[in-house]
Each structure stands twice: as structure tokens, then as C-alpha cells.
């Protein structure tokens, strides 16, 4: 089964590396957005199976984007994995309390990103 993943990240390089990795390694269909507000629009249009969401973005950050996605019936049930460079315990606890599916850390290993996501979401690879 081909999965569709939405990557929301303001960093062009991160989006590109993650997209190429998920397409090549896992064979997933990847759509992307460069901001929280654009990501919300893309989530409604693309109906992804999961969202990989950057925490630190200008304007609407990742946690705020996640909370906005939760308010929309079409996007509320899409599992969200946060991608963050913040590894402090207090930040991790705050992110976990949001109700996201998982938290992955930057820098990520492109070769294991699909497996990490599959494991976090309970998907067979």
C-alpha cells in the first residue's frame, strides 16, 4: 500500500532530503509545505496518511500548526510526527503532551527515517 506523507518544514533542504528519502527508500508519495498555514491547506487537499511537522518555523510553529489541524474534522485524525532539534527534557515533555504520534530528532538519518516513521505509526514496511 502506498502511503502519502505531508512534510511541513520551512527549510528547503530538510524538505527535499526527507522527501527524496521517503520516496526512494519507502516508495511513499510525498507532498510538502513550507509553512504551518500552507501545511494546513495541503493537509486538507492531499489527505495524507501522516504528517512530518517541523517544530521551529517562523509565523505559525509546529505545535500551533498541530493544534490547528486538530480543529479541522478532515485533518484531526491524521497522525503527526514532530521533527525537532530541541532535545531538552522539558521540550520533549511539552511536545508529547500535545498528543502527537511521535517525536523525531534533527539531524535525522535519511536512511532510517522511513523505518522510524513506520515504527512510530505501527505501519508494516
TrEMBL record:
The Response regulatory domain, residue ranges: 4-121
Q: Which keywords does UniProt give here?
A: Phosphoprotein
Pfam families cross-referenced by the UniProt entry: Response_reg
Carrying 4-aspartylphosphate, the residues are: 54
PROSITE patterns hit by this protein: RESPONSE_REGULATORY
Phosphoprotein as UniProt keyword: yes
InterPro entries per record: Bact_response_regulator (IPR050595), CheY-like_superfamily (IPR011006), Sig_transdc_resp-reg_receiver (IPR001789)
Which Gene Ontology terms describe the biological processes this protein takes part in? phosphorelay signal transduction system
Determine if Phosphoprotein is one of this entry's keywords.
Answer: yes
Coiled-coil stretches, from where to where?
none
Name it: CheY-like chemotaxis protein
Query: What is the source species?
Result: Silvibacterium bohemicum
Q: What is the lineage of its organism?
A: Bacteria, Pseudomonadati, Acidobacteriota, Terriglobia, Terriglobales
